[in-house]
Amino acid sequence: MKKFEFKIFVPHLIAIGVFLIVAVIFCKPGLESGVVLKQSDVSGWQGMSQQSFEYKEQHGRFPLWVTNMFSGMPGYQIAMEGSWSPLGMIDRAIQLWLPQPINFFFLACICFYFLCICLRIRPYAAILGSIAYAYCSFSPIIITAGHNTQMFALGYAPAVLGAVILIFEGRHFAGFTLAALFTALQIAQGHQQISYYLFIVMAIMTIAFAIRFIKANQAKLFFKSIGLITLAGILGVAANALVLLTVYDFSKESKRGGQLVIDDSATKDVVKDGKTKGLSKAYAFQWSYGKAETLSLMFPGVMGYGTHVAERDGDVYMFPKVDENSNVVKYMSEKLSAPESQLIDYMSPELYWGTQPFTNGPVYLGAVVCFLFIFGMFYLDNKHKWWIFIASIFGILLSWGSNLPGFNYFIFDYFPLYNKFRVPTMALVIPQLLFPVLASLTLNKVLENNDPGWWKKFRFGLIGTAAVFIITLFFYTSSDFSLEDRKRTSEFNNIYNSQDPDVQSKIGNLNDALMPLKDNRLYEKLVMNFANDPNAKKTAKEIVSEVRKDRAGLLLSDIIRSFIFVVLAAGLIMLFLKKKINATVLLIGVTLITMIDLLGFGMKYLNAQSFGNKDDYEAREFPLSAADQQIKQDPDPNFRVYNSAGGDPFQESKTSYYHKSIGGYHPAKLGIYDDLAAYQLNPGAPNISVLNMLNAKYVIQQQGNDLVAARNPGALGNAWFVNAIRFVNGPDEEMKAISNFNPADTAIVDIKYKNITATITPADSSSNIRMTSFDNDAIVYQATSTANHAAIFSEIYYKDWNAYIDGKRTEIFKANYVLRGLVIPAGTHKIEFKFEPKLYFAGRTISNLSTWLIMILIAAFIIYWLRKKSLIKM
To answer: Is the pTM of this model over 0.85?
Structure first.
């Protein structure tokens, strides 16, 4: 038996130790006893999923359908569980069972490190790239926002890429096994958009490998590799069939499958049968990165830092802040005589001036990483740099979204499934992944120090980097830092010029223009000071002018900051190449500079203020108001609640925590319900007829500082017979028809269902229908009538609901755009609705089989490896 050489593992153990130490230091506030990371999207998910967990406590499983959001939707889009899977144990083991948020950063580091080892990068050079990838500003920003699935998917992405490279490099068994495993784990995180970008990277890389194999007359080996990669991908995908099949099936019915367009003359979308083919471009491209904003990859303050808002113990914190020495605070302090602390909070959101509606912060890759990327384009051979460069540029172009419409609208319309995704800015995860790869490859070659022409290439790298600085300096000197100021100046002017004595009514306009704060006294004071000021326009423009100066100051300070980091890193590299310092000094120095750069900036977004007291979490996030208490006293559990007091009811899930809500929050709500919300349930003036048909028994309203629950006497209950059906042609006519109708008397139905309802007669007073049993996945009614009548059920229409009358399957028709309808024959009948999603059960079976195939494959590889190393005999 060969002697086991432990020393070969020492560099890897040191790397793991470094990743742990850095993660613990970065997340140190989270180690404090009794605190929890505050994540707005996680709070949102808890509101969504509360009913599911309560149901599980009673029934031992999650429901397949939930009723606490959007009047009802598939529950497996919120909380799902399949059979026990060993992949879950492997997932936690890779993360070393670390607590959040430490595990996020450690996972990203260790998976990127694996990619570097697959690229044959020295372990200590791989540490730099791993830290650069994990601590790019995008990571702490999405973690504090609560985008956990996105961060986990990003964490596993490099490992998938590394396993594929192993296959291309001829290590077929190891690569195939790990590709299947990591693909399964990456997709299991449930963020298909990140998986899509990863696929784009792999596709571009595969083209590069194909060219290399063909040039080397190894086409057969290439196709063998492609076959193994495809098979591993199929196994990884199949292990997630439960999630993927249900998501794919639901996506066709969700808003991502198409949105209603009543006036298609004003849209840029491809419209068929009154609906877009996927998300509308106006919705999908809202968060498009600006072209000049892309300079944030190296200079984060180019468009301001965005505004990250955190709250702890009742206080609001914003990052980054203007300070008491800022131009705008000094100016407004003199004009308003307001406390500087209020002015700082008030004006901090105005630091961002990019094209996105708002943003928590920029994507900053690090000055040193960007320098190494540019240097590497001159210094490295062609093996990897060109596909990395092309994929990175492609990701940047995708991120521009509507700011590059010709390119991105084509991609949106013709790339498979791409029209299901939104937020083009997210495509910057491609350069986030690939810039550190090229930086690590560059540092790795520098360590070889065997290139006699290094000085020329190094000089070109410096010139290329200098060119980026010159472009940024030109932008700094030529910009007026007011891309969006015209709109906001208009808002200022409208308020300042108001002659309305009731200036309080004008405060709402300012709330729309600027981020609302808890304390509106500053708004009030601003309005009161300038409402009747004859110099209002001048004052408003001066305020904006001072904001511009602060924005310019941010960018200039970042240019200087990045310049210092680049000079330090370049100086160390030059000294090493001149053999003035050794490799240890170079590695420690450049890695330390990179860490100071990225961790220092990242702590603006993840710090002590990102955590809150765990004990009062529920009370703080889901306060039980007087209105909630009043509603919960109602003995009837089967009604809905419309919350008109908390802003947009379709962007919050706190109501869903306690009630069956007409509103809710989900990035992919049912398409028909999204249409209904857009056209009929305007937060300011919802269609009362629609609220009635949705059985909105209570409407939560604001009354002074309190919330009250107003009883809606017009709520129609769980089911009712109608006297007539009005047929319309297509979804646009159906939506227009329900704008003005009496749902108690008439049902609006698409003409395609006319044959189903041909035999009905108007209902008489002797006919009745009532709910006798309710379960999320099964509902029972009893109906009595003297003739065939049309019954409308206040339940959301969805294709996987089946209806049975006296045990016999009966066809459901869609009524009033979102509800279910049945033709009930004369007599007394038992009516059952059962939620029976076939793909859910088929997906669970496929997932189970594929998971165990992967486990067998892993076991076989472990045995093979141990035998190869002569550590076991068979």
So the answer is: yes
